[in-house]
Structures are given as structure tokens and as C-alpha cells.
Amino acid sequence: MERQASDNYAAIKLQASENKCSIELEAYKNKDMILRQEFEHYAASKLQAAEYKCSIELQAYKNKQELAAQLAECCCELKEKIVCRDDRTDELIQNIEDTR
């Protein structure tokens, strides 16, 4: 009977040890899977952030070019008005000189 109890104890102890190893192995597998998922999410979020940054920078550059073109056009119109007024001023001065 003692031998049977001793064999049962050894079998239970072996089963407990195997169960413990199995649980620990599953825990490490789960931890590894979670770490991989975290890394994948981190990498995906970094990629998305980089894409957004590039998109914003590109849009800002396009806006800058458009504003520069509008400013250049505005400057050209202003320059034309100045030249036109300068010509009128010259004509007015000439008329005043002629009437003296």
C-alpha cells in the first residue's frame, strides 16, 4: 500500500510538473504573441504618422507655391497700376508745363 501511495504521489508530482511546464510555455507563447502585436501596432502607427507628416508637408508646400503665385500676380497688377499712374502723373506734369 505504501508503494502504491508512493507511486501515486510520484505520478501526481510528475503530472503537476508537466502541467506547470505546459502553463508556463503557453504563458511565454502568449507573451511573445502580445509583444509581436504591440510591435506591429507600433510600427504601423509610426508608418501612418510618417505618411501623415509627408502629406501635410506636401500640402503646405503646394499652398506655399499657390500663395507665391497669387502674390506674384498681385505684385504684377500693382506694378501695372503704379506704371499707369506714373504715366498719368507724367502726362499731368507735361500738361501743367505746357499750360504755363
Give the number of DSSP strands: 0
Secondary structure category: mainly alpha
The amount of helix comes to over 70%
Distance between the termini: 145 Å
Query: How much strand?
Result: under 5%
Question: What's the main sheet like?
Answer: none
Radius of gyration: 43 Å
So what's the overall shape? rod-shaped
Task: Kindly describe this structure.
The chain is mainly alpha-helical. Helices cover 98% and strands 0% of the residues. The protein is built from one helix and no strands. The protein starts with a helix and ends with a helix. The mean pLDDT is 90.
Topology:
Blueprint: H1 2-99
Q: How is this structure best summarized?
A:
Helix content is 98%, strand content 0%. It contains 1 helix and no strands.
Could you list some keywords that capture this structure?
mainly alpha, 0% strand
